[in-house]
Amino acid sequence: MGDKDQLKSFSDIVKNCVVAPVLVTVDKKPYMNKDAITFSYTKDEIQRMASPFELSLVGKFVYGRPDLSDIRRFFVSLKGGCSFGLMDNRHLSINFCNPEDFHRLWEKQLYYVEKCPMKLSKWYPGFRVEKESPICPVWINFLSIPVEFGGEVMNWASVFGKTVKMDEATIKFLKHCSARVLVEMDVSIKHLEEFWVDVEGKEKYLQKVVFENKPLYCNHCFKLAGLNCHSQLCYVPK
């Protein structure tokens, strides 16, 4: 950590950021399990506790972290209301106030802070710093879509993940030959690239989809861009 950070405490550096998320408790009581104290949670309870972090990203500095004051100035310069905190020496937890700022920053994914590359990924319950998040923003292009189904693309896209938005050309109906939707997609699993559209069991056609910017993910190394992995156990979904 640089000299500038030594002059200020961590709380001094981040205090001008927006208000941090309000933590949620489910007030679980412990019990004894084979002579060990245990706290047990359901998936619904985990989701409730994670709800304040729905708009959270993880920033990973690949080759070293800049001063905290430089990081703060970087986020202020982006004009996106957020708070951040250290997860370890290389990872930041970044929480946003509104979905527009969250998706605007996440969609680009790579930024430079004082010449230090910072990769952004989505936080999710169960995230651990040793494993990169497989949830990525992916543009889905529905090719040769019939005009009458233009209003259905957000519904169709929800099959592949949480829908975010349509692109401007789709919203304004500027391209009649295709439609694009941004989706939060789990790229660690295989996704089909076509599906059937049926009309009363009499007419049907095969709708093709293209994942325009879907990154590779190694399910052995738990990292993006899995083809760069040198392990013989590396597995990348096709």
Automatic annotation (TrEMBL):
Record-annotated DUF4283 domain positions: 53-130
Pfam families documented for this protein: DUF4283 (PF14111)
PANTHER family: GLYCINE-RICH CELL WALL STRUCTURAL PROTEIN 1.8-LIKE, RNASE H TYPE-1 DOMAIN-CONTAINING PROTEIN
Protein name: DUF4283 domain-containing protein
